């Protein structure tokens, strides 16, 4: 599943948010085996109201949501990239993540000590980003040395090495100016060559602005810290989401109906977990398709652009290998038809072949040879 690392300075609300996410995730998926698997790793169900609607249509016995893994990466502090003490381990944990959520303190509370003495989202994020950038610069320098020393044999190798060197030099220049690798424009060829380095600042980063409950209604528009963070994020190709770790923690004490009422009373349309997951999905170019039947209704996560056989392969490699065709109906079409039979009668159920690119919300039934 998608793995999201939670990073940030000490005392900004990381553990509060992580614990709330895992507890709320468990509560929403009471019947599913999602849980905290290690003290700092939690797997949570991706909330998706479409599952319930689909399962009513199919009279399914079970609902299986897709899941996201969260890792609480505490301890990324000043000096981590120098590899002192546990620093290296933290960076290795980050390297394994698909996306990073950086919790940024945007709330005032004189009872909660700030490590730098004052609330300052711009400086706080600089501290964390600097450690990630230093690690990337070290990686890139090693790679550049290897490219210099290595004896490229063919003309193609020489040309490709030149392309890579040029791209890496541009990234280092950007990093020197506090600009992350993800904000550097690369050609498709360059992207492919650079990908192998798994640069930390290339990973999608979501700033989770941790605010007090009063800021939820207007999404932080009247909070100057959030404003400053949004301006900075735009330059770094980052998204900002608004959460209140404290509210998330309170939500976990409530049943789903009470929780929805509480959120509504705060003027918030959804909890922080849903918005975090939705943003990560979008940044990573992920989408959801469904399978549905009497046994179960289930959500599957794929990368956007995947063909029908590739999407089938997410369920089982046999489905991909023996793929013949896929009965496909768009979620909205199925809901307005009311049943698969009706959707077929309306001409909404399509037979798609090997070239078909799966769309968000497709409901699919694969036909395959074994
Ligand atoms: P971590 O070190 O980043 O994991 O931070 P913690 O989650 O342990 O939180 C540090 C302190 O800030 C705790 O005392 C929390 O109760 C408090 N805190 C976390 N989120 C909020 C928030 O949204 N508002 C307020 N007022 N306090 C918070």
Labels describing this entry:
coiled coil, alpha/beta, binds guanosine-5'-diphosphate, seven-stranded mixed β-sheet, 3 domains, three-stranded mixed β-sheet, cytoplasm, Rossmann fold, Ubiquitin-like (UB roll), hydrolase, DNA polymerase, domain 1, flat
In CATH terms, the superfamily of the largest domain is P-loop containing nucleotide triphosphate hydrolases
CATH fold label of the largest domain: Rossmann fold
Unreliable residue stretches: 29-33
At CATH level 2, the architecture of the largest domain is 3-Layer(aba) Sandwich
Distinct helical segment count: 14
- Which molecules are bound besides the chains? guanosine-5'-diphosphate
Structural class: alpha/beta
Q: Helical amount among residues, as a percent range?
A: 40-55%
pLDDT averaged over residues: 89
CATH class bucket of the largest domain: Alpha Beta
Q: How many structural domains in the coordinates?
A: 3
Sum up the overall morphology in one term. Answer: flat
Distance between the termini: 26 Å
Strand content: 15-25%
């Amino acid at each position: 599943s998608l793995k999201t690392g939670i990073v940030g300075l000490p005392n900004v609300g990381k553990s509060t948010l992580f614990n709330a996410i895992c507890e709320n995730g468990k509560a929403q998926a009471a019947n599913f085996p999602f849980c905290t698997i290690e003290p700092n790793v939690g797997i949570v169900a991706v909330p998706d109201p479409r599952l319930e609607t689909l399962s009513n249509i199919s009279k399914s016995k079970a609902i299986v949501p897709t899941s996201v893994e969260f890792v609480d990466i505490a301890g990324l502090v000043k000096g981590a990239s120098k590899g002192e003490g546990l620093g290296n381990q933290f960076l290795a944990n980050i390297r394994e993540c698909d996306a990073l959520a950086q919790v940024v303190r945007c709330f005032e509370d004189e009872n909660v000590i700030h490590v730098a003495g004052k609330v300052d989202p711009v400086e706080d994020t600089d501290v964390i980003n600097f450690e990630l950038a230093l690690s990337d610069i070290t990686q890139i320098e090693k790679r550049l040395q290897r490219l210099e020393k290595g004896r490229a044999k063919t003309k193609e190798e020489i040309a490709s090495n030149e392309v890579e060197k040029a791209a890496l030099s541009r990234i280092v220049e950007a990093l020197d100016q506090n600009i992350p690798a993800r904000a550097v424009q690369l050609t498709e060829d360059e992207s492919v060559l650079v990908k192998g380095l798994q640069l930390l600042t290339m990973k999608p980063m979501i700033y989770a602005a941790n605010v007090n409950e009063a800021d939820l209604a207007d999404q932080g528009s009247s909070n100057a810290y959030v404003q400053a963070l949004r301006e900075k994020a735009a330059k770094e190709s980052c998204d900002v989401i608004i959460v209140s770790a404290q509210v998330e923690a309170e939500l976990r004490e409530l049943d789903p109906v009470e929780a929805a009422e509480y959120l509504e009373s705060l003027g918030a349309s959804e909890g922080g977990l849903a918005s975090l997951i939705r943003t990560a999905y979008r940044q990573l170019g992920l989408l959801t398709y469904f399978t549905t039947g009497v046994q179960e209704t289930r959500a599957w996560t794929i990368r956007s652009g995947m063909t029908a056989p590739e999407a089938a392969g997410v369920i089982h490699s046999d489905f991909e290998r023996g793929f013949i065709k896929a009965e496909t109906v768009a979620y909205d079409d199925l809901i307005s038809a009311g049943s698969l039979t009706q959707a077929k009668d309306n001409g909404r159920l399509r037979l798609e072949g090997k070239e078909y690119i799966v769309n968000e919300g497709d409901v699919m039934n694969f036909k395959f040879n074994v």
